[in-house]
Write a structure and sequence with these properties.
0% helix; two-stranded antiparallel sheet; 86 residues; single chain; three-stranded antiparallel beta sheet
Length: 86
C-alpha cells in the first residue's frame, strides 16, 4: 500500500506497516518511508461497527427516552431573534 510522504513530497510504499484502530473506530496504517525514514500514516476506508444497544427504552438523552417528543409550553415561540440598537 502506498501513502504520501510529506518530506519526500511523493507517494511511497509503507515500510513496516502496522494496522491500527483509532478512537472513532476507523482503521489506519502506520509505518515508515523507505527512502527517508519519516513516519507515514494512511487512513483506510470503512469503519468498524459500534456495539449495538439492545434496549432503546433504557437509553435517555437529556432526560428524555429515545423516540419520545419533548413537550413545549403552549403559545411560546421556539426561536426568538432580538436585535440591540445603540
Amino acid at each position: 500500500m502506498k501513502a504520501y510522504c510529506v518530506k519526500c513530497k511523493a507517494q511511497r510504499p509503507i515500510a513496516d506497516a502496522v494496522e491500527q484502530s483509532l478512537k472513532n473506530g476507523r482503521k489506519a496504517l502506520k509505518g515508515k518511508c523507505p527512502t527517508c525514514g519519516t513516519s507515514i500514516f494512511k487512513m483506510l476506508p470503512g469503519k468498524t461497527a459500534p456495539a449495538a444497544k439492545t434496549d432503546n427504552a433504557a437509553r435517555t438523552d437529556f432526560g428524555v427516552s429515545f423516540g419520545e417528543t419533548i413537550p413545549r409550553a403552549p403559545g411560546k415561540p421556539t426561536f426568538r431573534l432580538t436585535f440591540f440598537h445603540s
